[in-house]
TrEMBL record:
Protein name as catalogued: DNA-3-methyladenine glycosylase I
Pfam families reported in the protein's UniProt record: Adenine_glyco
InterPro entries reported for this sequence: Adenine_glyco, DNA-3mA_glycosylase, DNA_glycosylase
Domain of life: Bacteria
Gene3D superfamilies: Hypothetical protein, domain 2 (1.10.340.30)
Gene source species: Belliella filtrata
Length: 196
């Protein structure tokens, strides 16, 4: 364990163990499973105006409240359940964000119907290849990109809510469409090897 603490990591994850685990095991790993993409879209849209650390701490609450991120179930949440969610302390109790999750589940399935999978759709915005920014330090880390701008515009046109360019760039980082681990981070090369 002592050796593990000596690993060089991206500095943003060093706040608490759950954050470190997320960085070490998930962040930047290329995702091709639709349910995982949907999970991150729910969490990232909930994050708007808040810290990712806050959302990570509520992740299990979201998993329980949002049917293990099953978009087919979320799309059919009745109004009575949405009202119930407003009093659930395990999630962010924001009516617009909760309603957006249901809306986005419906839009998500429309994208699946058109493209065969949401994964096919989103990976097309990076031509199916991981964008490697080769970051030396956090000061030159982008918050948006041309691809996230294009994705946000297209998703807005399709009726998605709470998913602007900054949020979607974070999604692209989290789900490995972009490798924004610092080149000095031990995960940089590991994640690079996971790209298709």
């Amino acid at each position: 364990m002592e050796k593990d603490l000596e690993k060089t990591r991206c500095p943003w994850c060093l706040g608490f163990q759950q954050y470190i685990d997320y960085h070490d095991q998930e962040w930047g790993v290329p995702v091709y499973e639709d349910q995982v993409h949907f999970e991150f879209l729910i969490l990232e849209s909930a994050q708007a105006g808040l810290s990712w650390a806050t959302i990570l701490k509520k992740r299990e609450g979201y998993r329980n409240a949002f049917a293990d991120f099953d978009y087919k179930i979320v799309a059919d949440f009745p109004d009575s359940y949405l009202t119930e969610l407003l009093s659930n302390p395990e999630i962010i109790r924001n009516r617009l964000k909760i309603n957006a999750a249901v809306n986005n589940a419906k839009r998500f399935m429309e994208v699946q119907a058109q493209f065969g999978s949401f994964s096919n759709y989103i990976w097309d915005f990076v031509d199916g290849k991981v964008i490697d920014n080769g970051l030396i330090n956090m000061t030159n880390a982008p918050a948006i990109s041309a691809a996230s701008d294009k994705l946000a515009k297209d998703m807005k046109r399709r009726g998605f809510k709470f998913l602007g360019s900054t949020t979607l760039y974070a999604h692209m980082q989290a789900t490995g469409l972009v490798n924004d681990h610092l080149v000095s981070c031990f995960r940089y090369e590991e994640v690079k090897l996971l790209a298709k």
